[in-house]
Design a protein that fits this description.
Blueprint (H helix, E strand, L loop, with lengths): L1 E6 L8 H15 L3 E6 L11 E4 L23 H11 L5 H14 L7 E5 L4 H8 L5 E4 L5 H10 L3 H10 L2 H9 L4 E4 L2 H11 L6 E3 L16 E8 L9 H12 L5 E5 L7 H9 L5 E4 L4 H10 E6 L8 H8 L4 E4 L4 H5 L6 E4 L4 H12 L2 H18 L2 H27 L1
Parallel strand pairs: 1-2, 1-4, 2-3, 4-5, 5-6, 6-7, 8-9, 8-11, 9-10, 11-12, 12-13
Helix pairs in contact: 1-16, 2-3, 3-4, 5-6, 9-10, 9-14, 12-15
């Protein structure tokens, strides 16, 4: 098959969408399919045999100058103007504007592809790709962004802040509307399938659950782990990732222990995470790292005595599976799809209630004090990854979904021609 894989932003290492695009495209190519990735900034890292077609935006949220004001010469058309004006009124325009741009690109290349795979863009232009261009579309919903919106609204301290949050998440209504029009939707977990049905109104019969995979480079360490090191992955300085809960629990542990917390993220300068660290007086014990290579990330994951995934919700949580592959013992939230990833209670990780500082503190302390349990959980997590999470299997199941969508599309057209 000839596949167009769409992703409005594809950050390579932090955040699941860029990881998904890279590994799925590579394995589809290894199965003999032709894959071309269409992405906005930040662009993904892709493997040999996969083509990248950039779909540049104004890149208004780039690091280190998010919410930047572009120079006049950067504006190319009215889509750019729409993108900038939406940002100016507090909205997030990228899903909508990317979908418009990529639909225009594909209009000139309809004969080059058999199927289009939308990686949670869910903009109005995605509907046009099937209805106007005649290309069957399969969409992946990692999780409905309604969860991010609810959590951010709940933590907004004032009515002005709540209004700002509602403006930012204005694109969610569009995504729900587009999702209901998709021919076939893939989700990475039963939790995401259930939540997309409930929050987006998608027919469960049109959704298929395909678990995500873990790259073979994630392996147990060959060097001793660093005593007292706790680490966590956070794709954004956002309440949904639960980093505030972890920081508060870490501050309590730090009173009587020699500990280090490593956070794989780049926090917003002067944002809530940095402010909380200062308020708790733990700046000397918390370290941020970002821009890591794959090998550096694997080394870091394998260096921690304990890792924590404190999220308030996850549609799958690739970092959880990757840490398990490194045999790193875990404390995770009993939230969203995380229990699906780690398996039965206590088998591969210690599960705690999301947002509960006291329970998280006790769970971390218990693991730090019990090397035998850490070893047992790490080994069980590693085995679970080997048994269940393979990108090759993801690609095969995804290709089957493509074939199903293509056949359904062809049958629909035959019925329309009668």
């Amino acid at each position: 098959m000839r596949i167009a894989l769409l992703s409005y932003r594809s950050k390579p290492h932090c955040g699941g969408q860029g990881v998904y695009v890279r590994h799925l495209s590579r394995e589809l190519a290894r199965l003999g399919h032709t894959v071309e990735v269409f992405s906005g900034q930040p662009y993904p890292e892709l493997d040999e045999g996969v083509t990248l077609t950039p779909v540049p935006s104004l890149d208004l949220y780039r690091e280190p100058d998010p919410f930047r004001v572009p120079r006049l010469r950067e504006f190319r058309d009215l889509v750019d103007v729409e993108e900038f004006l939406t940002m100016c009124v507090g909205g997030f325009p990228e899903p909508r504007t990317f979908s418009t741009r990529v639909a225009r690109l594909l209009a000139d290349r309809v004969d080059d592809f058999d199927v289009v795979h939308d990686n949670q863009v869910l903009g109005h232009g995605i509907v046009d790709i099937e209805r106007k261009l005649g290309l069957p579309v399969v969409a992946t919903i990692h999780h409905p962004i309604t969860f991010d919106r609810r959590i951010d609204l709940a933590q907004a301290p004032t009515w002005r802040k709540r209004l700002s949050v509602r403006r930012w998440y204005g694109f969610v209504r569009m995504q729900a509307k587009v999702a209901r029009q998709m021919r076939l939707i893939l989700t990475p977990s039963q939790a995401s399938r259930r939540d997309a049905a409930r929050d987006f109104g998608v027919d469960p019969e049109r959704m298929r659950v395909i678990l995500l995979g873990v790259d073979d480079r994630f392996v147990p360490p060959t060097e001793p782990r660093v005593a007292g090191r706790i680490m966590a992955m956070a794709s954004a300085d956002a309440p949904m990732k639960g980093i505030a809960t972890l920081l508060e629990a870490f501050a309590k542990l730090r009173v009587e222990r020699d500990l280090e917390l490593v956070l794989v993220t780049r926090p917003v300068a002067g944002g809530r995470t940095e402010q909380l660290i200062d308020d708790l007086g733990i700046a000397d014990s918390v370290r941020f790292v970002h821009g890591l290579s794959d090998d550096e990330l694997v080394t870091l994951m394998g260096s921690a005595e304990v890792a924590c995934v404190p999220s308030l919700y996850e549609g799958f949580s690739l970092p959880t599976a990757e840490l398990m592959a490194c045999a790193t013992p875990l404390v995770v939230s009993r939230a969203g799809a995380i229990p699906e990833v780690v398996g039965e209670e206590g088998e591969c990780a210690v599960l705690v209630e999301p947002g509960d500082v006291g329970e998280l503190e006790q769970a971390l302390a218990g693991l730090l004090d019990d090397p035998e349990r850490r070893s047992r959980l790490g080994a069980a997590g590693r085995q679970r990854v080997l048994d269940h999470f393979s990108w090759h299997a993801v690609a095969r199941a995804t290709a089957e979904a493509y074939a199903e969508a293509i056949a359904d599309h062809q049958e629909e057209r035959r019925r329309a021609d009668r």
